[in-house]
Fold this sequence. Notes:
Structural class: alpha+beta
Distance between the termini: 14 Å
Mean pLDDT: 93
Shape: globular
Helix content: 25-40%
Low-confidence stretches: none
Strand order of the largest sheet: 8-13-9-10-11-12
Order of helices and strands: EHEEEEEHEHEHEEEEHEEEEHHEEH
Number of helices: 8
Amino acid sequence: MNSVGMLRTNKRPLILARTVSYVCQHFGIDFFYFRPDDVDIENKKINAQFLEKGKWIRKTVDYPDVVDNEPMSSKNKAIYASLKKDAILTTNPLGGKSKVFRMLEKSQLFEDVLIPYVVVQNADDVILFLKKYNKVLLKPVFSNQGRNIVAIEQDGDHYKLMDDRLTTEYTYAELIDIINSNYLKPAYICQPFLESKTKEGSPFDIRLHVRKNQYGQWQKVKIYPRVGMGKNITSNVSQGGGISPIVPFLQSNFGDKWKKLKDQLELLCKTFPKRFESLYSYKLDALGIDLGVDPNGNIGLFEVNTYPGQQFFYAEDAEVRVGYYRYLLNLK
Length: 332
């Protein structure tokens, strides 16, 4: 029997696991859910949970053929290493933002969407970008669901520092102190601020959710805008943002340019993942590509994430996800 285990740290299986289980049953794939604590490394056994007649039932099983894993935390390193000897793990790490942007820049394959950046080593890095662009964005190197992101704008002799809730003015000397105290460790990236805002003034980005399918090829799962309700900067849904269908959103905010923009986004779904995966020596299974669009319709890359969320389209995601299981299991 071809088997797939979904490895997560949540105490109980959530909607995604249930949805994936139903799709796996349709294709005759033995699917179960498990946590790191359920793994017996010594005997290579798992105290797994199977969905039977709508209820999750415990059974002890061997390691599966494929593990649909979440990104590894350091405390589970030994468990992941043990599983990797016998199973294919679907999700591999990308590295922090600075590594990703360095790779993107060095490859020269992404000039169509890459926004200039610098990894902040000292306050001068931010000041030089401010002089060049007047308004900049500071965000942590390691993804944190939109937290601790700030914008800085020069306003005459003063500087405005904005987070999602507040705007505070500082002198040059005060700003230097704040950068040195708060934005050097952990590491931050500084970029020119891309004015990606709706006509009502709310920040937004556009997520391209792509995933490998039953042919081992990249496929669009969903394109959707994320709007920061009542925010100054971020549009992350986990931080209180909302989503919208893509076509009416583009029509409402970009008028006659909406069709051209939609075509560009569709093209990026096809071309970006292949280019991006070519930068790595191992396979990737899914990407969340976050883009900003300025009022003139210029597209800029905010960031690339592995392990993208799917809370608004579980069924669409599950169908493509299970297709990739079939590819890895060599099932037609």
